[in-house]
Write a structure and sequence with these properties.
The protein contains two helices and no strands. With 58 residues, it is mainly α. Helix 1 packs across helix 2.
Length: 58
């Protein structure tokens, strides 16, 4: 598991936990939501890192 996958996993976990806490997702059906959330977060992270300028030192 690479660095981006670990980051995406952590963020997806936090999002799902928040949705469970507010009642938007049930613990019984979180498996229907976790994969799409994880994939979207991972795609966003990867997309963001490909848009960064590798010569930017700031």
């Amino acid at each position: 598991m690479d660095k981006h996958q670990k980051q995406a996993l952590q963020v997806a976990k936090e999002i799902v936990v928040k949705f469970i806490e507010i009642g938007r997702i049930s613990p019984n059906n979180f498996d229907q939501f976790f994969a799409p959330i994880y994939n979207e977060v991972l795609n966003t992270i990867k997309q963001d890192t490909t848009q960064e300028d590798p010569n930017d030192d700031s």
